[in-house]
From TrEMBL:
Species of provenance: Streptomyces tamarix
InterPro entries associated with the record: Knr4/Smi1-like_dom (IPR018958), Knr4/Smi1-like_sf (IPR037883)
Gene3D superfamilies given in the database record: SMI1/KNR4-like (3.40.1580.10)
Domain Knr4/Smi1-like, residue spans: 19-152
Name of this protein: SMI1/KNR4 family protein
Pfam short name (any one): SMI1_KNR4
């Protein structure tokens, strides 16, 4: 089975120069969450892994992992957050779904939570739900998978911005794997750009971030 076409299109727009195969244990991930995962997310994890986009959004890991300095972000915290937000916003009056069908896969600096609506038995048919901090309405459903949604977002193809901040400013889209971000941090570099960061506090026992 070849690469998901939406991940391939995303890679042309955002080359995975600093991506890494996450080598996810998908059997364990599916057991943890009780669902199979969409093919675009699986391919994204193989080509990019978890990490940040332009320093303004994070794609979450399906399972927790040990980090070099701190644990990288996984689905659990933001999934709990979006289900709490659903209840706080009025439940079915805000979005007529079962809250257990909301599963987070990303978060922006907005902060918005990017989710799947997992009610369809086929994960490749799951739409993206945005839970926006500063959007109106709070919950919006978009008929795309996560990779197509990210591609449309970075290509500025939405008439109305679906998230609370703009991080597709015309500059080349840039992805940095979480491990590379932490290496840069430990080396006293800006985690997003890799440039020297005068405010960084590198650990003296790990000057190269290894």
């Amino acid at each position: 089975m070849g690469e998901n076409p939406h991940v391939a299109a995303l890679a042309r727009l955002m080359p995975p120069v600093h991506g890494a195969d996450e080598q996810v244990d998908w059997v364990a991930a599916e057991a943890r969450w009780g669902v199979a995962f969409p093919s675009d997310y699986r391919d994204f994890m193989a080509r990019y892994g978890g990490g940040s986009i332009n320093g303004e959004a994070v794609v979450l890991l399906p399972l927790p992992r040990e980090g070099l300095q701190w644990p990288p972000a996984d689905l659990a915290e933001e999934t709990a957050n979006v289900r709490h937000a659903w209840r706080a916003e009025g439940g079915r009056d805000a979005l007529d779904v079962d809250p257990e069908d909301l599963l987070a896969w990303g978060v922006t600096a907005g902060p918005d939570i990017l989710c799947w609506l997992t009610s369809d038995a086929d994960p490749d048919r799951w739409p993206v739900v945005v839970c926006g901090r500063h959007t109106s309405p709070t919950f919006t459903v978009h008929p795309y998978g996560m990779a197509e949604f990210l591609h449309r977002l970075l290509a500025d193809e939405f008439d109305d911005p679906p998230v609370s901040l703009v991080f597709w400013d015309g500059a080349p889209a840039r992805f940095v794997h979480w491990r590379e971000e932490q290496r840069r941090f430990l080396a006293g570099l800006d985690p997003v750009t890799g440039d020297p960061d005068p405010y960084a506090q590198p650990r003296p026992d790990r000057p190269d971030g290894a």
